[in-house]
Amino acid sequence: MVAEILMIKRVLELGKKAMMIVPYISVAQEKMHSLQELFSDTEVRVEGFMGTHNPQGGFQQTDIGICTIERANSLINR
Predict the structure, then answer these.
(1) What is the domain-level CATH number for residue 20?
(2) Could you tell me how many helices (H) and strands (E) the chain has, helices first?
(3) Which of 35, 42, 47, 51 pairs as cysteine with 62 (C-beta 3.0–4.6 A)?
(4) For residues 38 and 25, what is the distance between their CA atoms, to the nearest angstrom?
(5) Cα atoms in the 13 Å half-sphere on the side-chain side of 58
(6) Which of 37, 43, 47 is nearest to 12 (CA)?
(7) Whole-model pTM?
(8) CB under 8 Å to 7, separation ≥6 — which residues?
(9) Domains contained in the chain, number
(10) Which residues pair with 22 in a beta bridge?
(11) Which residue segment(s) compose the domain that 17 sits in?
(12) What does the pLDDT read at residue 1?
């Protein structure tokens, strides 16, 4: 929880991108939906990168990316 708060603080204060890596698709979906709801009134874009889910614009158009381990590895290696 502390890491999540620090991630959100960095995104809001410095305008940096962040990637949260979780082990399972179900956890990624749950976290993505909760953060999307939290930032619904702001311009912060939260998207999920898991399984076959590929958000429009990719990571370049995302402020916070919620990823499974495999998709995070793919994004970092690209």
Answers:
(1) 3.40.50.300
(2) 3, 3
(3) 47
(4) 20
(5) 7
(6) 43
(7) 0.85
(8) 18, 20, 64
(9) 1
(10) 68
(11) 2-77
(12) 83
